[in-house]
Amino acid sequence: xxxxxxxxxxxxxxxxxxxxxxxxxxxxxxxxxxxxxxxxxxxxxxxxxxxxxxxxxxxxxxxxxxxxxxxxxxxxxxxxxxxxxxxxxxxxxxxxxxxxxxxxxxxxxxxxxxxxxxxxxxxxxxxxxxxxxxxxxxxxxxxxxxxxxxxxxxxxxxxxxxxxxxxxxxxxxxxxxxxxxxxxxxxxxxxxxxxxxxxxxxxxxxxxxxxxxxxxxxxxxxxxxxxxxxxxxxxxxxxxxxxxxxxxx
Length: 249
What we know:
Pfam families: RNase_H_2. This protein has about 250 residues and is α/β, with parallel strands linked by helices.
């Protein structure tokens, strides 16, 4: 489902009205007809379409992130997926006031970069990777990864952010990332490793075990790359549930 199929960003248009528009055959901004709604709503929709078309042409994801309800943020994915930045962090604990970020993996344009504490993990490098991303994608990143990075490196992680934990819950999938991957049939090289192992591996690396760092980096990269597979799956399922179930496509 693309942003151009959406009418709920318009003030006064909720899911019920949007669904009625779709059922009447108006499934895209280009198909809008004033007669489908009242005069006031028609004016608002036409004004929105005019501005939104320009904003979309300009790649202004922030505009749509603000306009869409948070529960519909997944609709950003189809339009901005090609340049989205998937990211995941590993830490030595759950509180940034005492714990450290050990690795950060970022997957974008088919390439994955992992930044390591004490090597190349810095505020400057993080800003370089995150600054121009139109959409960030994570799992539980709104509550954990993003604020942890902000506190640890004094940076702003303020790009539109699709946290897959929430659309997964909408679809009935609960638990952590690895549990949901298993439920959806998404494979990884080391399914036996967990966040607790990530802390252990870092401590072993600090004691001189370079192979432990290699394993930690591989684990972190798996988390990050799998986010794209998960996002593809989740957005496809939501498309079917929300849009295709009404429009048949």
